[in-house]
User: What shape does this take?
Amino acid sequence: MSALDLPLEKWTLVELVRRQAERYGDREFLRFEDGTTISFAGLENKSTRLAHALSAHGLQAGDRLLALLMNGPAEESTATAGGSPIHMAK
Assistant: This one.
C-alpha cells in the first residue's frame, strides 16, 4: 500500500514514522554530529514513549507545550510524538 492509498487524515508525521519503523526497523534513520545514531524503530519507540508520558501528565490533543531543547538526539522525538516544534535562533 502506498501513501496515496491512505485516507487523508492518515497523512501525518506520526503515521509516516510508524509506517517507516515497520518497514525499516533497526536501519539507521539519523546520525548526529557526535556520532550518536537512532534507527527508524528507535525514533518510533522514543516518540511513542514521549507521547504517552505527556498524556499521563494530562496533556491532550490541542494543548500547547513549551519545551526548550538543544539540537541533538532529544529533539527528534517532539514532532513525531505529534508535536509541532517551532525553531528559534540563538
Remarks:
- The chain has a mean pLDDT of 78.
- DSSP finds three helices and two strands in the chain.
- Residues 3-80 form a domain with the Rossmann fold fold (CATH 3.40.50.980).
- The longest strand covers residues 28-31.
